[in-house]
């Protein structure tokens, strides 16, 4: 318990910093050093995660405020109450909470998004598509949140005060990107309905070298079934890593999974998201600096066979 | 010290099987003892050795509890969510080592009995001669501790759901003669089972990311030790890999708690039926996957539970699209498992509070949801679907009725002189048709001071561990079964026994971590 004091001081400093940055017009981009955290979080432990029991109960309005549909408050009969009488008693209420609806659904997920480089670069290229980063580490998530906030403010200011030097960014920029703290290995179906996603990015996932930690890998025979569940047929899983064996592992597990096929190299290289994935992720940049190799593989979600 | 109570029941035709500690006793329909199968002691000794315990830890931080070292150096993997953090470290969980029957299942024709023992992660298959005698056919030690199992509808395949979230298929009767036409022993349905994982020898940093000489040397050392470690692990994995046919079908990243099979008409050809595998986990999920051979396809989820799910029950014939699920929530939830739609809720906690002595209870852990089959005829001659619910450490059965509109309503509580542990229906062989009443068999833990204190005075052991209940309408009269054989397992401390019997509440997550 001796380290507690030090931890607290550091935490205090971080919190002060983050509070300040949020008050101060939010246009200053956050600095990473105030958001660092232990490199690994155990995906099996409980943490203190917040997630909706069902995707219909997910409140997206704070992440994507510009897409909120303003409608008359009414009772959508999502899950009709069979005993039409008194739905007010807590035990029988079948549709407990109806969050604000968005005009569109999240379609892209960046699993283990880290500091958010991919999302921030991807957002302007697909300005009408909602994208979400999922990150298990608290302060890293906070960093991305603050980063998005700052970028939105900058974009808004730039749009308000046009200058001659640089073309103003389109208004509404970064309105389509959000981040959530979540354990993506456990709770994807809590956030996304069947077939909701068109793209899933898995960029530079933690390698978990030891054989007995392989179940912690974010790609596995059994977990790929969950990716297939949230992806629509035709949707793509994007993977990139600098660890050759992990690349091989991911290729083998996706190729072996009957719901996926590998995307041809030609198609892969013509996909603009691939270039962004190579150059814009923080890990990608690090590998670049170290002149390391980057291995890319894409997989297409196939239609389910008849049953 | 107390004796083991009967804690698992399975009625096969006219024969009752009842597990007590590590024994399985059988009784005829008059509840006269027929025979006893005992867990082989030698097997017990060899399988609980520390070496083996430490070795079979391929995923040291598996759900839900972190493995942690206990004083004697053995990993403590069995304690679950409740035992967490510093406090948990001082539990040297002896429950871990005592052979204890954790699950008892039977094929629908009653010809085979299947059992799980947790300490050695073993699935046992017995042949039943129809008269109460068991012949041990196989015992298979699984890669991870099985939590629950079920059988496919053809009774030929065991579906075992384990602590690490995986479901394996095993043939009920292993094919002993090597048959070239049958699949290779570890052929996974989803290709690449975990046991086939290659070992990666590269350390995380590579030569390009370290610059100083010292770093480079450290890296070299790291590499060498990683390689050694990996090689050792590969060897261990090889040793641990079961030698029998077992197929990885699907997996959650969470401890599985229950598994059942549902059937529904095929979407492409409605005249054929398809099986679905329904699995629940500690993280509130109920997943519906297609049956073999398309178990990699997740059809849907039944999402809405806000605490662990511990029990799944498909409604009986005619209502097989209904799934009643219970766990750590205050209510039971009734699902249409094919669409994932929530149909109804039925309060549990509210009714538990009405059980004598339970007024202050503020949470429940459902351990049994038992729906009577469609031929169940109640005392007053009407056909109804009655659902009995057992809640951990609550000395009563909660009785519900499933209505035609799919709602589930509470009818009454049946107080008992101890905590019920399991139940099954007793059907008199000659009375299946037109029987005026079925009797209910209940196993209970009499060491609990239930509503009747008289039972404690005489034999502190098992005189009331088995009860037969007959009904007229909603009225149930329990009668103890006399002359039960005593357990061959040595007596056990009450605390230790409770750790073995009452494991469900431990699935609940702690909410305050700091
Ligand atoms: C090596 S980093 C890569 C970050 C980013 N994708 C990039 O390329 O720069 C891997 C990230 O995945 C996160 N992560 C690991 N397991 C996760 C899980 N189960 N759910 C969500 N995020 C996870 C880690 O916290 C870490 O930030």
Automatic annotation (TrEMBL), chain A:
Enzyme Commission designation: 2.1.1.33
Domain of life of the native organism: Eukaryota
Biological or metabolic pathway of the protein: tRNA modification; N(7)-methylguanine-tRNA biosynthesis
Annotated catalytic residues: 206
Pfam families: Methyltransf_4
Binding site for S-adenosyl-L-methionine: 112, 135-136, 183-184, 203, 281-283
Keywords: Methyltransferase, Nucleus, RNA-binding, S-adenosyl-L-methionine, Transferase, tRNA processing, tRNA-binding
InterPro entries reported for this sequence: SAM-dependent_MTases_sf, Trm8_euk, tRNA_(Gua-N-7)_MeTrfase_Trmb
Primary location class: nucleus
KW Transferase (keyword) present: yes
Keyword Cytoplasm: no
Catalytic activity entry: guanosine(46) in tRNA + S-adenosyl-L-methionine = N(7)-methylguanosine(46) in tRNA + S-adenosyl-L-homocysteine
Cellular compartments annotated: Nucleus
Region (Disordered): 1-38, 72-98, 262-290
Biased composition (Basic and acidic residues): 1-22, 279-290
Low complexity bias locations: 74-90
Record's subunit section: Forms a complex with TRM82.
HAMAP family tied to this protein: tRNA_methyltr_TrmB_euk (MF_03055)
The family this protein is said to belong to: Belongs to the class I-like SAM-binding methyltransferase superfamily. TrmB family.
Protein purpose: Catalyzes the formation of N(7)-methylguanine at position 46 (m7G46) in tRNA.
Official protein name in the record: tRNA (guanine-N(7)-)-methyltransferase
Gene, per the UniProt record: TRM8
From TrEMBL, chain B:
Alphabetical UniProt keywords: Coiled coil, Nucleus, Repeat, tRNA processing, WD repeat
Stretches the record annotates as Disordered: 40-94
InterPro entries the UniProt entry points to: Trm82, WD40/YVTN_repeat-like_dom_sf, WD40_repeat_dom_sf, WD40_rpt
UniProt WD repeat ranges: 302-345
UniProt subcellular location: Nucleus
Coiled-coil residue spans: 209-236
Pathway terms, separated by semicolons: tRNA modification; N(7)-methylguanine-tRNA biosynthesis
Superkingdom: Eukaryota
The family this protein is said to belong to: Belongs to the WD repeat TRM82 family.
Role of this protein: Required for the formation of N(7)-methylguanine at position 46 (m7G46) in tRNA. In the complex, it is required to stabilize and induce conformational changes of the catalytic subunit.
Protein's name in the database: Transfer RNA methyltransferase 82
Organism: Humicola insolens
């Amino acid at each position: 318990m001796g380290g507690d004091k030090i931890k607290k001081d550091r935490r205090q400093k971080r919190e002060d910093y983050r509070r300040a940055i949020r008050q101060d017009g939010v246009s200053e981009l956050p600095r990473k050093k105030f958001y660092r955290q232990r490199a690994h979080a155990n995906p099996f432990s409980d943490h203190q995660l917040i997630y909706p029991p069902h995707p219909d109960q997910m409140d997206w309005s704070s992440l994507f405020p510009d897409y909120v549909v303003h409608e008359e408050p009414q009772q959508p009969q999502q899950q009709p109450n069979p005993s039409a009488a008194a739905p007010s008693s807590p035990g029988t209420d079948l549709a407990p909470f109806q969050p604000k609806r968005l005009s569109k659904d999240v379609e892209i997920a960046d699993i283990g998004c880290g500091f958010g480089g991919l999302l921030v670069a991807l957002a302007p290229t697909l300005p009408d598509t909602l994208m979400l980063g999922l990150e298990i580490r608290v302060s890293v998530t906070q960093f991305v949140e603050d980063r998005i906030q700052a970028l939105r403010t900058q974009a808004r200011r730039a749009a308000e005060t046009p200058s001659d030097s640089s073309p103003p960014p389109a208004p509404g920029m970064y309105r389509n990107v959000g981040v959530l703290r979540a354990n993506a290995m456990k709770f994807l179906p809590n956030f996304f309905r069947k077939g909701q996603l068109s793209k899933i990015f898995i960029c530079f996932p933690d390698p978990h070298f030891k054989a007995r930690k392989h179940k912690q890998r974010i790609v596995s025979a059994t977990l790929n079934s969950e990716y297939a569940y949230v992806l629509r047929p035709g949707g793509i899983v994007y993977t990139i890593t600098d660890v050759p064996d992990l690349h091989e592992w991911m290729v083998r597990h996706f190729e072996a999974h009957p719901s996926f096929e590998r995307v041809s190299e030609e198609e892969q290289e013509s996909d603009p998201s691939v270039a962004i994935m190579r150059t814009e992720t923080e890990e990608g940049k690090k590998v670049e600096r170290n002149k390391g190799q980057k291995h890319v593989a894409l997989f297409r979600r196939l239609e389910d066979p008849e049953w | 010290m107390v004796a083991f109570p009967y804690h698992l029941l399975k009625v096969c035709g006219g024969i009752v099987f009842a597990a007590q500690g590590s024994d399985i006793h059988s009784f005829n329909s008059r509840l006269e003892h027929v025979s006893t199968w005992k867990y082989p002691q030698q097997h017990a000794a060899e399988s609980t050795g520390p070496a083996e315990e430490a070795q079979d830890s391929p995923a040291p931080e598996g759900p839900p509890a972190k493995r942690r070292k206990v004083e004697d150096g053995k990993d403590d993997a069995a304690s679950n969510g409740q035992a967490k953090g510093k406090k948990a470290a001082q539990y040297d969980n002896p429950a871990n080592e005592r052979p204890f029957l954790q699950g008892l299942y039977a094929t629908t024709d009653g010809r085979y009995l299947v059992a799980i023992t947790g300490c050695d992660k073993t699935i046992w298959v017995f042949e039943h001669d129809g008269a109460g005698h068991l012949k041990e056919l196989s015992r298979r030690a699984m890669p991870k501790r099985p939590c629950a199992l079920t059988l496919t509808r053809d009774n030929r395949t065991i579906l075992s759901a384990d602590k690490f979230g995986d479901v394996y298929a095993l043939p009920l009767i292993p094919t002993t003669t090597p048959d070239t036409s049958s699949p290779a022993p570890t052929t996974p349905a989803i290709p690449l089972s975990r046991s086939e994982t290659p070992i990666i020898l590269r350390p995380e940093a590579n030569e390009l990311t370290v610059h100083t000489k010292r770093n480079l040397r450290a890296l070299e050392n790291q590499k060498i030790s990683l390689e050694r470690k990996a090689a050792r692990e590969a060897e261990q994995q090889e040793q641990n890999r079961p030698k029998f046919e077992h197929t990885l079908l699907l997996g959650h990243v969470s401890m599985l708690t229950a598994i059942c099979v549902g059937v529904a008409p095929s979407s492409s050809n409605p005249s054929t039926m398809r099986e679905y595998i329904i699995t629940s986990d500690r993280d509130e999920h109920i997943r519906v996957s297609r049956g073999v051979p398309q178990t990699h396809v997740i059809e849907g989820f039944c999402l809405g539970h806000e605490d662990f799910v511990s029990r799944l029950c498909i409604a009986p014939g005619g209502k097989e699209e209904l799934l009643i699920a219970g766990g750590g929530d205050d209510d039971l939830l009734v699902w249409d498992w094919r669409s994932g739609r929530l149909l109804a809720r039925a309060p549990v906690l509210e009714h538990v509070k009405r059980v004598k002595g339970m007024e202050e209870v503020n949470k429940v852990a459902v351990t049994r949801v038992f729906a009577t089959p469609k031929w169940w005829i109640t005392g007053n001659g009407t056909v109804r679907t009655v659902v009995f619910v057992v809640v951990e450490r609550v000395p009563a059965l909660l009785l519900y009725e499933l209505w035609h509109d799919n709602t589930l309503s509470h009818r009454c509580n049946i107080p008992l002189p101890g905590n019920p542990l399991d139940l099954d229906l007793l059907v008199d062989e000659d009375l299946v048709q037109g029987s005026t009443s079925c009797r209910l068999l209940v196993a209970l833990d009499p060491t609990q001071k239930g509503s009747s204190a008289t039972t404690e005075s005489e034999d502190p052991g098992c005189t009331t561990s088995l009860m037969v209940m007959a009904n007229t309408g909603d009225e149930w009269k329990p009668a103890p079964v006399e002359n039960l054989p005593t357990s061959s397992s040595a007596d056990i401390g009450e605390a230790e026994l409770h750790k073995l019997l009452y494991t469900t509440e431990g699935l609940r997550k702690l909410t305050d971590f700091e």
